[in-house]
Amino acid sequence: MLRDHVLVAASDGLLVLADSKYPHPVRVLNPLTGSLLRFAATIRRVNRVRAAAASSDLVFSFYHDSYSDLVSWAHPAAGELSPVEFPHRAGLFFCSKQASMVSYKGHVYLADQNGTIVRCTTESVQGCHAELIIAESPNGTAASSSEDTTGRRYGREFLVASAEELLLVCHRRRRRRRTVEVFRVDVDRKVLDPMKSIGRRSLFLGSRCLSVDHADRLPSIRSNCVYRVTGNGDGVWEYDLGRGGTEKMISTCHSARPFSMVQVLMNYCVALPIVKAQLHSIYRTRD
C-alpha cells in the first residue's frame, strides 16, 4: 500500500498519507495496528503541505504560498478540505508562517509567533472553528519598538505535547543573547503558568517538536534542556533551563555518521517529507 502513497506528515504516532495519483486523496494510517482511515477530501497541491496533525477523525493542514499559510480541515465524509474559521482577534495572526501546531487530548492547538493559541473544535461535519485560548504570550507584544527590532522579530513560539501537558516554548533572541521560556498551557482556565524546570525531560524544537522523558538516560542528551538547530543549520543550540545558559554544540545535523542521539532527534524535528522526491521515485519505479 505504501508504494502507492506519499508521506505528507506524522502526528501522534499516525502517518498522514496522500494517494500518489492526482488529486491525491487523504489517508491516515496507524502503523502499529495497520488500520487505515480514508478521507473523501483530496490534497490537490500535495507539495504545498507544510505540516499536519490528525485527531480521531480530522486532518489539519498548513497550505503554504509566497505570502501566507491557510489552516484547513476535513471530516472523512467531507468532499474537500475547508478553511478553519478563526476568531477575529486571532485571525490576523494566523496568516503567519511561524505558526506551530500540535495534537493534544483529541484537539488540535495552534500558536503563532506572538504566542496566540487557539483550539480547533468541530461542531458538525460542515464546520470547524478556532477557539481563542491564549491571547498572547507574556512577551508577545510587550516589547518597545527598539526591542522589537532586536527581539521579537527573531523569536518563535513552539507548542509541545509533553507528559500529559501542553507546553508553550518561547525562544527569543535579543542583542545577541538567546533566551528560552517554558509555560504550561492550562486549556481549561486559559492561562499560561511559567515553568522554571521541566524535570528529567528535554525538548527538541523544529518543524515538529519532540519531548523526551528521562533524558538523562540517553547519551549526549541532558535533562531540563531545550534543543534547537542554529539559524544556518551548522549546529544545535542547547539551552539549560536550570542555569539559564546557552551553548552551541559542535555536532551538526548533517555531519558524517555515526549520528549522535541529539542529531537523530533533531533530524526528526527539522526534516520534513519531500513529497516531490517521493512522487518522482514512485513514477520512476513504475516505468
Pattern of helices and strands:
EEEEEEEEHEEEEHEEEEEEEEEHH
Rg computed from alpha carbons, rounded to a whole number of angstroms? 19 Å
Oligomer: single chain
SS strand fraction: 35-45%
Low-confidence stretches: 141-153
Structural class assignment: mainly beta
Head-to-tail CA distance between termini: 18 Å
Describe the overall structure:
The protein has a 5-stranded mixed sheet with strand order 18-17-19-20-21, covered by helices on one side. A 4-stranded antiparallel sheet has the order 1-2-3-4. With 287 residues, it is mainly β. It is globular and about 50 Å long. Residues 141-153 have low confidence and may be disordered. It is built from 4 helices and 21 strands. Helices cover 11% and strands 43% of the residues. The relative contact order is 0.10.
Q: Secondary-structure map with pairings?
A:
Layout: E1 5-11, E2 14-19, E3 25-29, E4 36-42, E5 49-54, E6 59-64, E7 69-74, E8 82-83, H1 88-91, E9 100-104, E10 107-111, E11 117-122, E12 128-134, H2 145-150, E13 156-162, E14 165-174, E15 177-186, E16 191-195, E17 202-205, E18 210-212, E19 225-229, E20 236-240, E21 245-249, H3 261-270, H4 275-286
Parallel strand pairs: 17-19
Antiparallel strand pairs: 1-2, 2-3, 3-4, 5-6, 6-7, 7-8, 9-10, 10-11, 11-12, 13-14, 14-15, 15-16, 17-18, 19-20, 20-21
